[in-house]
Design a protein that fits this description.
mainly alpha, five-stranded mixed β-sheet
Length: 517
């Protein structure tokens, strides 16, 4: 990196922190945030994913957030602050990488601006979820591998494998990126060191897999259900299905739709596709970045159902490939007229890119239109942090410290002094409960509607939190209607068994048992 690029590194980090902090202060809460934060709090209470509560993800993320909250407190602000810092660190690493590849601080700044203004970045990485840390880990592994000389340090190769493996500990389908990294190492190593380099990479990757191995050995059936079985039964299309929906989602990535504009993604992808292969050289890091963006995008389509935010993992790599390839082509232009024309074209394209994000800023920070989860709410204010904190404060006024409370969305009790009633740790478990036997539900810590009504009849728990909105991992109209009817049934059951509505905050209701069983 040049001296100017190094001097700008600290301001780049600080400006990103300011921008992403502003975003998360005003962004609507995403419903998955409550689930991940409560899981992290349960880990702090020495509970284990899979073994003590239903957790349909790879196991590492709640331990990372639990460690952070042990140091900085159990709060929404602390959780989102970690995501903001990780996102800013990813942007700083991207800046450094582009500056090093292009030897231009201006290209590095352009990359950061493009990165931070992408709706798939500012809307999804600075919030608590399963994308921020994997994006940073994969990008770090890519940076290490892309810089490996023919005679490289085995420890660096092992570190790259460790970082990739840790990303798999959070998003399990990222395991399928491993062959791409192995191919790069094989292709760029000397024949003499090739086998050794691959073994060191796999050694680091294997060490990272120890958390998954621990939980698998502890209970293979429970581990496999949480990571695969649940995802295979939550829709009628199996583990990998809904192919028409995946085609529509791909079109939305390029053309836009609810929650994204499409223009930014199209610019990054087609600029990369048009220029990246015109640069000579077999080993060209931006070309590797484009390859990993392409593979990550394909992997994002595998889950059923798939969602547009999954593509955020590909964006940092598209930024590298687009900015670096355009910069390298500009450098090769010889005439002043060509350089001026190309510079004007880049400025215009950047202006279009930045302008496309204006609507998304308004959507995610002000209106809530088209945002997954929020768009189905009758009162969008229910997904503001102030409203959620008000609910948590109300719970603290009603519940005893440590009392078990049944909240159909775990985020409502995360920052309260109450604890989650067993079986209510994940809002999506209810939708699959009737597809399981009683023995399976007990083993996987899932409650059926009949189980919940039986608990209400026994007046356990004493306090129940209901939202006017229902939650489904497969939000089809039919599924939402079914769950809405189920919530109406629960309301009737609560009133029939002596529960009283004691507090309403927006469309969120707090019921308390007022009679003996």
């Amino acid at each position: 990196m040049t001296r100017t690029a190094k001097l700008l590194l600290v301001p780049v980090v600080l400006l990103q922190i300011l921008v992403f902090t502003f975003v998360v202060r005003h962004r609507f809460i995403h419903l998955d945030e409550g689930f991940f934060l409560l899981a992290s709090r349960l880990v702090l209470l020495h509970k284990k994913p899979y073994l003590d509560f239903f957790y349909p993800q790879a196991p590492l993320l709640p331990y990372i957030y639990a460690l952070w909250m042990k140091c900085f407190g159990i709060s929404w602000v602390a959780g989102r602050l970690l995501a903001t810092l990780l996102t800013s660190l990813l942007g700083a690493l991207l800046y450094e990488h582009v500056c090093r590849l292009t030897r231009s601080w201006l290209a590095g700044l352009a990359a950061v601006v493009v990165f931070a203004s992408s709706s798939l970045i500012f809307a999804w990485l600075p919030i608590v979820g399963p994308f921020t840390l994997p994006a940073l880990l994969i990008f770090s592994a890519y940076v290490i591998v892309s810089r490996l000389p023919a005679e490289s340090s085995n420890w660096l190769i092992a570190l790259a494998g460790l970082l990739l493996g840790l990303s798999v500990d959070i998003r399990s389908y990222l395991l399928l990126l491993t062959p791409l990294f192995l191919w790069w190492i094989f292709d760029n190593s000397n024949t003499r060191t090739r086998r050794e380099s691959i073994l060191w990479f796999l050694c680091g990757f294997t060490i990272a897999m120890l958390p998954c191995l621990y939980f698998f050995i502890s209970s293979p059936d429970v581990f496999l259900f949480n990571n695969l079985g649940y995802h295979a039964i939550r829709s009628n299309q199996g583990l990998i299905g809904m192919w028409q929906e995946k085609v529509v989602l791909t079109l939305m990535f390029f053309l836009g739709g609810p929650g994204a504009n499409g223009i930014q993604d199209s610019i990054l992808f087609f600029v990369s596709l048009g220029f990246i292969f015109s640069i000579p050289g077999r080993r060209y890091p931006p070309r590797q970045a484009f390859q990993i963006a392409l593979v990550a995008g394909i992997l994002s389509l595998l889950p059923t159902p798939a969602y547009l935010p999954y593509f955020c993992l590909a964006v940092p790599f598209l930024v590298v490939s687009a900015v670096c390839s355009v910069n390298d082509l500009l450098v090769t232009l010889e005439s002043r007229r060509q350089r001026l024309f190309a510079a004007v074209a880049c400025v215009v394209l950047l202006g279009v890119y930045l302008g496309a994000s204006a609507g998304d800023f308004r959507r995610y920070l002000i209106t809530g239109e088209g945002i997954p989860g929020v768009r189905w709410a009758r009162d969008k204010g229910d997904w503001r942090l102030q409203r959620i904190l008000a609910v948590s404060q109300a719970i603290d006024q009603i519940a005893k410290p440590g009392e078990m409370v049944a909240s159909f969305w775990p985020g409502d009790i995360f920052q309260s002094k109450a604890t989650s009633f067993p079986g209510f740790e994940n809002p999506f478990a209810l939708a699959v409960s009737e597809k399981l036997t009683a023995q399976q539900r007990a083993r996987y810590h899932i409650l059926s509607p009949a189980d919940i009504e039986s608990d209400f009849a026994a007046h356990t728990p004493r306090i129940v939190i209901l939202r006017g909105q229902v939650f489904s991992a497969v939000p089809t109209d039919e599924e939402l209607r079914r769950l809405h009817d189920l919530m109406d049934t629960f309301k009737i059951s609560l009133l029939a068994h002596g529960y009283t509505l004691v507090r309403s905050i927006g469309d969120i209701s707090i019921y308390v048992c007022s009679s003996k069983p």
